[in-house]
Amino acid sequence: MQVLDYAQDVHSVQETTQTFAGITEQLIKRINDQQSLNVFLSMNPNVIQDAQSIDQHNHEGMSLKGMTIAVKDNISTTGMPMTCGSKMLEHFQPMYDATVIERLKKNGAIILGKVNMDEFAMGSSGETSYFGPTDHPQFPGYVPGGSSSGSAVSVAAGLSHASLGSDTGGSVRQPAAFCGIYGFKPSYGRISRYGLTAFASSLDQIGIFSGDVATMALVFDAISGHDSHDSTTDPRPAAQSSEMVKKPLDLQTLTLAILPEQELMGLDNDVRRVYEELVRKLTALGVKFIHQAIPGSKAWIPTYYILATAEASSNLARFDGVRYGWRDSSSNDMTTASRSSGFGMEVKRRIMLGTYVLSSGYYEAYYVKAQKARRAIVQGYSSIFSKADALLLPTTAGLPFKRGEIKNPLEMYLSDYFTVSANIAGIPAISFPAGNSSEGLPIGMQLQTALMNDEVLLAITQAISSVH
Ligand code: GLN
């Protein structure tokens, strides 16, 4: 299985008799051959016509001409169901395109279909989907990571040029690391959330998967920028990172922060080896490193799981069996019956936790405290980025694991250790492929930088990837 090369495909359309419709047809065939991965939940019924229309018209200035995209099934896309990986929305047909979908189409991208995910984006392994787990593209029986499991596998298995996911606590970066590709969570507010089904609104951000930084930058430029439909978007216009990632960045001008020894204790041996090797290699190339303890790291996971569950319990209250979605009329209390049979275990656990931390007796002890911890984490990051251009850290402490191996929810939550703090602080973060374990399992490393410094983050990632 090979990751697709968008630049190469554009070149072959320009220079040979190849067409975007031809490439799309091959992909549909490949998707059908790879059904056992359980990636696509629904296909765009007009995909070939869409590709033909891209071939036929002169779409001057369209930056994503013919780029095939898989979309996580919590992003509203007309013409296809949106299930959020849940029985609750099994037959739900959304009525409008999310802003990101509108912008992809406007720029000539081809939407292939909607892809599998952990139910309501709650999970780290792709195992909580009502529609069954997504398999790992290279290691059958292993998890591809989650919650954007289908989005990661789609790119890693060469089923689409790029894909969209959502990242509330790591759901783009962690599966990207597990599948050996790039996964980018931009700054909060840089990409509109209009049309993204809310999980935890103050942490959610739409993110991008790709096989290379240049493709990532093209998609980011196309979908980012202010949106009047989402008042939390930043006022600035679309990003212009594509030009930036083409210019070589002088590694000798770069200062990176790295974790001190005590933060590396719990790392898997192979993850630690890849991290240390990368630091050694970059040091030899002239990158300056400073050791930087991240204040409040012990608070990352508790803060995230208090804030995320509190917001989720409120956001998911709308699924009551009344207006849309699954309705269970088997008892007099239709709402309770619908929610009991429509939601899976993990979602129920989050709703229970969230209502608990928001309940009047515990609000101060948990929710208010987590808000304070959030502020301290934001300040901790500001102090790091006043001394370093970016922070380099592993994406995950461990390796991709076997399906069914992690049964304890708390242990599963700990797999987000290195990713949640970027969502808590709203800063941009990217996972890039950095090596493999002794058995060949992919290992990703992560770069994080200051709020709204997204373009620079992509440029640094490109510079590191090209020497590594
Ligand atoms: N794994 C984390 C969780 O289960 C993150 C989810 C996400 O980013 N959507 O909450």
List the helices and strands and how they pair.
Layout (H helix, E strand, L loop, with lengths): L5 H10 L4 H14 L6 E4 L3 H10 L11 E5 L26 H8 L3 E6 L33 H8 L5 E5 L6 H7 L2 E4 L20 E5 L2 H11 L17 H6 L8 E4 L10 H16 L3 E4 L8 H16 L18 H9 L2 H14 L5 H22 L4 E5 L14 H6 L5 H6 L3 E8 L5 E7 L5 H14 L1
Parallel strand pairs: 2-3, 2-4, 7-8, 7-9
Antiparallel strand pairs: 1-3, 4-6, 5-6, 5-10, 9-11, 10-11
Helix pairs in contact: 2-3, 7-16, 10-12, 10-13
The structure holds glutamine.
Glutamine binds next to loops.
Describe, in short, the structure shown.
By secondary structure, the chain is α/β, with parallel strands linked by helices. It is built from 16 helices and eleven strands. It is globular and about 70 Å long.
| Terminal residue distance | 22 Å
- Report the major sheet: 11 strands, mixed
Structural class call reads: alpha/beta
- Helix-strand pattern: HHEHEHEHEHEEHHEHEHHHHEHHEEH
Bound molecules: glutamine
Mean pLDDT: 96
Q: Please tell me how large the radius of gyration is.
A: 21 Å
Helix content: 25-40%
Count of distinct strands: 11
Largest sheet, spatial ordering of strands: 1-3-2-4-6-5-10-11-9-7-8
Low-confidence stretches: none
Overall geometry comes to globular
> Count of helical segments?
16
Strand content: 5-15%
